[in-house]
């Protein structure tokens, strides 16, 4: 770092350029500049530097005696140097040579610094490109693992749904005799659940208190349950042949689901690995090992075949049961269809509310992030203003100090002009920074106001989600189920 008014001593890594081969005589040079003014016009275009600036000598100084530099002569025979000029002046170079040498050294230093800056910029770009390439490659692998995990989760959900349906169907076949006796008594449960759902939904707040499709389906469900309770009859039938087929399909589903869970666990672990993870090691040659036994098409076809076989078994079992309990299934199916419609309406409404909540949370997070960034930017602007004020103090102090120069030294030189320009530029910059600060503070207030609105709306959506998802759907998932409606227990 170079302080103003106190230049450092110049240090040169390169040897000093040789002087011109032919130098003019000292008397000729003296005659040329004897009558010239001490201030040269071209010096106004040069950067200001004090007259005390000097360059290190090309020769290295030594503390050895002078006689060691002339070993051929004894000390007594060395003739001392005596100038022939009357005033003792012995000129070797002209003042123009001295100025040209200084300018050459300045340009060489500036060129070297420029090349060093370009080299640093190139190195920064190269390092950044390397990191970006590695991040992009690893990101693609992570994205592929994420897609694979999504595929596994999809098929796991399909297997779970099918397995649950198969378990229900198997239990239905095993408990056929017991279901019919309690069919009428169990219709009271769905009626109470639907009625309580209507009461719970009256506790919604604000804009969410709407007469939506869920409200209409719940009213319809209550009417259907009242009608079905009058028409329920008892019917008995025993089914044993289909139980073994259902059991085999269930075992295939459970085995496939266990494999999916293990694969999901392994891929999730791989997905979460990072450069800073502990469990990463070198496995030389592992990329050349191919232990796969399927491709995505055969992998999906295998699970789809298991689900299809399970669905076929369930369909056959359902048909077998339907042939012996047509009347019971008619009433139960009517109730269950409406029950499913209500659940679908609940699911759709919950999804809408959840999406609205998610969007509100997204906007709220973005708003909070923007608030943080605006606050950070305000701090940066304030620091910049503080720094600029310090620079302004320096420039104005310099101008103030220069007003104390005596007499003719009060020269409007390049330094004076540049200091005045610097003060004007800093003042203009400070005005712009203060305008930016005021605009940022106004925007911060708007963001805070928007955050408050979003937070209030988020409270309303959370309340609606709690009522529909936790209270209403919590009751509807636990009771009534298909088993209880048909009198399984």
From TrEMBL:
<dbReference type="InterPro" id="IPR048256">
    <property type="entry name" value="Tektin-like"/>
</dbReference>
<dbReference type="GO" id="GO:0005634">
    <property type="term" value="C:nucleus"/>
</dbReference>
<dbReference type="Pfam" id="PF03148">
    <property type="entry name" value="Tektin"/>
</dbReference>
<keyword id="KW-0206">Cytoskeleton</keyword>
<dbReference type="GO" id="GO:0005930">
    <property type="term" value="C:axoneme"/>
</dbReference>
<dbReference type="GO" id="GO:0036126">
    <property type="term" value="C:sperm flagellum"/>
</dbReference>
<feature type="coiled-coil region">
    <location>
        <begin position="378"/>
        <end position="405"/>
    </location>
</feature>
<feature type="coiled-coil region">
    <location>
        <begin position="106"/>
        <end position="140"/>
    </location>
</feature>
<comment type="similarity">
    <text>Belongs to the tektin family.</text>
</comment>
<comment type="subunit">
    <text>Microtubule inner protein component of sperm flagellar doublet microtubules. Interacts with TEKT1, TEKT2, TEKT4 and TEKT5. Interacts with CCDC38.</text>
</comment>
<dbReference type="GO" id="GO:0060294">
    <property type="term" value="P:cilium movement involved in cell motility"/>
</dbReference>
<dbReference type="InterPro" id="IPR000435">
    <property type="entry name" value="Tektins"/>
</dbReference>
<dbReference type="GO" id="GO:0002081">
    <property type="term" value="C:outer acrosomal membrane"/>
</dbReference>
<dbReference type="GO" id="GO:0015630">
    <property type="term" value="C:microtubule cytoskeleton"/>
</dbReference>
<keyword id="KW-0832">Ubl conjugation</keyword>
<dbReference type="GO" id="GO:0060271">
    <property type="term" value="P:cilium assembly"/>
</dbReference>
<keyword id="KW-0969">Cilium</keyword>
<keyword id="KW-0966">Cell projection</keyword>
<keyword id="KW-0968">Cytoplasmic vesicle</keyword>
<keyword id="KW-0282">Flagellum</keyword>
<keyword id="KW-0472">Membrane</keyword>
<keyword id="KW-0175">Coiled coil</keyword>
<comment type="function">
    <text>Microtubule inner protein (MIP) part of the dynein-decorated doublet microtubules (DMTs) in cilia and flagellar axoneme. Forms filamentous polymers in the walls of ciliary and flagellar microtubules. Required for normal sperm mobility.</text>
</comment>
<protein>
    <recommendedName>
        <fullName>Tektin</fullName>
    </recommendedName>
</protein>
<keyword id="KW-0963">Cytoplasm</keyword>
């Amino acid at each position: 770092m170079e302080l103003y008014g106190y230049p450092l001593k110049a240090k040169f890594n390169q040897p000093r350029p040789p002087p011109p081969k032919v130098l003019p005589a000292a008397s000729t040079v003296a005659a040329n500049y004897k009558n010239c003014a001490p201030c040269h016009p071209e010096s106004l275009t040069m950067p200001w530097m004090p007259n005390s600036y000097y360059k290190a000598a090309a020769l290295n100084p030594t503390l050895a005696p002078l006689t060691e530099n002339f070993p051929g002569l004894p000390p007594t025979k060395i003739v001392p140097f005596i100038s022939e000029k009357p005033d003792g002046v012995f000129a070797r170079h002209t003042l123009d040579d001295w100025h040209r040498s200084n300018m050459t050294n300045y340009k060489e230093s500036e060129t070297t610094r420029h090349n060093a800056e370009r080299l640093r910029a190139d190195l920064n770009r190269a390092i950044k490109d390397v990191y970006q390439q590695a991040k992009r490659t690893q990101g693609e692998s992570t994205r592929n693992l994420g897609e694979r995990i999504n595929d596994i989760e999809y098929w796991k959900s399909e297997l779970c749904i099918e397995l649950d349906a198969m378990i229900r169907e198997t239990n239905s076949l095993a408990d056929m005799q017991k279901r019919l006796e309690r069919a009428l008594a169990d219709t009271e449960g769905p009626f109470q659940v639907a009625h309580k759902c209507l009461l719970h939904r009256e506790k919604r707040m604000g804009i969410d208190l709407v007469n939506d499709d869920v409200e209409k389906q719940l009213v319809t469900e209550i009417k259907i349950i009242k009608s079905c309770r009058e028409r329920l009859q008892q019917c008995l039938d025993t089914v044993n042949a289909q139980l073994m087929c259902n059991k085999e399909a269930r075992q295939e589903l459970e085995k496939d689901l266990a494999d999916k869970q293990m694969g999901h666990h392994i891929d999730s672990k791989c997905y979460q690995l990072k450069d800073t993870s502990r469990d990463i090691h070198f496995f030389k040659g592992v990329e050349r090992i191919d232990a796969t036994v399927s491709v995505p098409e055969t992998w999906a076809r295998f699970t789809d075949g298991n689900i299809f076989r399970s669905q076929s078994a369930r369909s056959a079992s359902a048909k077998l049961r339907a042939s012996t309990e047509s009347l019971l299934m008619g009433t139960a199916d009517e109730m269950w269809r409406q029950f499913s419609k209500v659940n679908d309406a609940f699911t759709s409404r919950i999804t809408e509310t959840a999406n609205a909540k998610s969007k509100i949370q997204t906007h709220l997070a973005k708003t909070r992030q923007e608030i943080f960034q605006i606050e950070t930017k305000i701090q940066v602007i304030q620091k910049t203003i503080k720094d600029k004020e310090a620079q302004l103090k320096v420039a104005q102090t310099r101008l103030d100090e220069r007003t104390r120069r005596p007499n003719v030294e009060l020269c409007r030189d390049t330094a004076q002009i540049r200091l005045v320009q610097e003060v004007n530029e800093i003042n203009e910059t400070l005005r712009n920074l203060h305008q930016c600060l005021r605009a940022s503070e106004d925007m911060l207030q708007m963001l805070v106001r928007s955050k408050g609105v979003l937070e209030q709306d988020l409270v309303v959506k959370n309340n609606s989600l709690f009522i529909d998802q936790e209270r209403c759907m919590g009751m509807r998932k636990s009771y009534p189920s298909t088993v209880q409606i048909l009198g399984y227990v």
